[in-house]
Design goal:
The chain has helices spanning 14-27, 54-68, 103-116, 142-151, and strands at 3-11, 34-36, 43-53, 74-85, 90-98, 130-136, 158-161, 163-170, 177-185. By secondary structure, it is α+β, with helices and mostly antiparallel strands. The radius of gyration is 17 Å and the shape is globular.
């Protein structure tokens, strides 16, 4: 059976996606090669799994259900923009997400631990909560793009996290297509 490219994420509300779409519209006028994230596909990735056998994904869904039972819905807040790896060598434009109560960090640690027990490699880099706005394809002429992006005043959006999603990612020439494979609602036990 074919492997399925997949990841675990949190969805974000429409107003956050609309903010990102507005920023993208301003920046698209610049002559820089950027692959813009489709606003409808914007999400907060908790863990990228890569190509995974379909039968194995059932166990990932079960692990998410178990984790979700330990968490009540919680709030996150969008923050300012940033660039990976650096402003001088931009590859990814992103909007940060603040975890004011530390719940997201604990959740990500639990996801990492549960999936490590299933044989998935732990993420080598520390978790940085962000929403990808676009991927810079050429650093040529990107200086103005980065300057304008980092100067942008992003509205702060508070949003409630209510579920975890195991998502399928199908890469296409016009951008990735995301399909939920499993949704685990948060529901802290009393």
């Amino acid at each position: 059976m074919a492997a399925i490219r997949s990841f675990i994420c949190i969805d974000v509300p429409q107003e956050v996606k609309a903010t990102i779409e507005g920023v993208q519209a301003k920046l698209r006028r610049l002559p820089v090669a950027v692959s813009w994230t489709r606003p409808e596909g914007v999400h907060l990735t908790l863990k990228f799994l890569g190509e995974v056998e379909a039968a194995r994904l059932r166990h990932v869904g079960e692990a998410l259900e178990a984790i979700a039972r330990d968490y009540a819905p919680f709030e996150l807040v969008t923050d300012r923009g940033g660039v990976f790896p650096t402003a001088d060598r931009p590859r990814v434009l992103w909007i940060g997400v603040r975890d004011e109560r530390g719940i997201l960090r604990a959740l990500v640690t639990q996801v990492e631990d549960a999936l490590a027990q299933q044989g998935f490699a732990r993420e080598a880099r520390p978790f940085a909560a962000h929403l990808t706005v676009g991927r810079v394809r050429s650093e040529r002429s990107a200086r103005e793009l980065v300057r304008l992006f980092l100067a942008e005043e992003f509205p702060s959006h508070r949003f409630l996290v209510t579920h975890l999603i195991l998502m399928r990612s199908d890469l296409r020439p016009d951008g990735a297509l995301y399909t939920p494979l499993h949704i685990a609602p948060l529901q802290e036990r009393p």
